[in-house]
Predict the 3D structure of the following.
Amino acid sequence: MGLLHAFITAIIDFAAAHRLLAYGVAFLIAGAETFPVIGALVPGTAVIVGLGALVPGGALAMWPLIGFTAFGALTGEGLSYQFGRHYKQSVMGLWPFRARPGLLRAGEAFFARDGSKAVLISRFLPGVRAAIPMVAGMAGMSAIRFYIVDIVAAALYALAHIWFGMALGASLTILHAIAGRLMVLALILSTALALVVWLTPRVIRWSVVLMARLRGPVRQWAAAGDGRARRLVLSALDPERPETLGVLALGAALLGGLWLFFGVLQDVVAGDPLVRADAAIFHFLQSLRTPVIDQVMVAMTELGDAAVVIPVFLVTLAWLAWRRAWRAAFYGIAAVAGASLFAFLMKITLQYARPTAGFTGWDAYSFPSGHVTASTALYGFLVILICREVGARARVLVTLAAALLVGAIAFSRLYLGAHWLSDVTAGLAFGVAWVALLGIVYLQHARREVRAPSLGAAALATLLLAAGLHIGTKHAADMRRYALNLPVREMSLKDWRNGGWASMPVWRVDLTGDYEEPFILQWAGPLPPLKAALLAHGWQVPVSWNLSSSAEWLLPDAKADALPVLPHLENGRAEALLMIKTGQDVPHGQRLILRVWPSGTALTDAGNTQPLWIGTVVAEKIEHLKPLGTLVDEQDAFDEPLQNLKSALPGTQPEARIPPGPNWNGAVLLGQP
């Protein structure tokens, strides 16, 4: 979805995993976005709101987060104010301010019009908030007056963003709990579409700006010596050549694509958390599948089949041959054939298995996705040919259309379970990098016009015609090929009792691939007997998510059994059974939560088959934030909840894992009706 989205997500994931450091992140982000020019590039609002969204689940505490955010904003604006007060008008001559005079002029006009109110209002306005504190210092605003207004602004900023994030986090949790599969999938698709539409023009602009700033130093390096590489760089970055901006954008795409591809490759080879996230996202998407959406996604994936890609490719080559653009035709062949060959060689080298069966030969290997790699190469090279001959606005529209098409093909591979997330990401990354490299070389020697608008129309017409024919003839067969068929592992009941239980997962895996709570329960057989046994020992079914129960979170003295339970996923799977226990032998102000998921394993015994379930039990501490509401904080100690569950299931057989885990003695309860 773009480097900015990945950067924001990485910060929030880091904060969720490191509580204490998260407050420091809030301090730094809130302060950094107040620095002129640099602050305009800091996604402060998105990060602060994202950190606030972690509060309802207990990952972060509200008041410390608000305090560090406000103090960071106050510190950053104070430094900016002192900088402007000390250097005054000489600031205009300093880098990077002399390169962005418009930002300071906008800030000066805003401050001249609103005075002290500008300091307060600008805190909530991206862009100008990175200049107003410094302008206030340059204009001679008194320190006492500035800091009084700024303290109020920082406090309001922190409260507004954190509370909005908390509301968003609670809303997403409620949505996940009460929404149907179609609504969740619609939310995912609409969010992805909005990000692509919003990010595409901005990524292009940011890439050009970044590479333009690097052009000077790189040209100096190239001019300082001799050699083919230096001459090529010097020619590519010649400011007199009209294609220089395109080369700069492709240079950024090349660097970004290579960085992402090798990062994914390293994780796949080393078995890092990305591999666990692959499985979690696979199971999550399979749980969202519906027949109606299956029809659409199979059609989307058929757009990346050879029966569609090859006709578009051949028409493109024929057009280039008709225009006698032999160099462009050569690079087009290199783009598509090279990307496809690379994907094939990587598949047979790594032999990384697909998520589902149904593929034979070398096609049974999945890394990287051939569909995505070839589609990215073909439509990426068409983008380069067309953008060379059209205006700036048309370039953005053409790039956006290609990104949406390739993105739809990529997502369909994930949704249908044909590829892992790492396969699709690597295919996109390599395809972008390969096309960018060929595009840079091609633009250095391209002389003949190819009548790109007409070429684009011909390629689009071929795409629609080939897709219509292919979908019309193969859709029914492909629906059967991509039918939902999750693999189920089989094990005998005897083997499970005699040690096979130890082959079950040890820790719950969330969607990001991180390990969470330990699985301390394995249950063989139907769930109703387990539920009945728990009900008989004081456990109860939690209240369901609705408007009334959701409002309990807003009450400062909500009772533990009145609060609905926040849902968790295990390797992408939703809970099959959810129970809570309060009062009696549960410490005051806490509640125990049992979650049970399907294990993906079936147990066989004398011709009969029964499911195997895995479960966690945790303690949640109820925190009353008077007068604002109620939060829960999941505790890290698992032994006491485990003993409480064992007392409710006296027929379970305790086993021990070696070695045990942190805050857990390694005990696992094996039970069956």
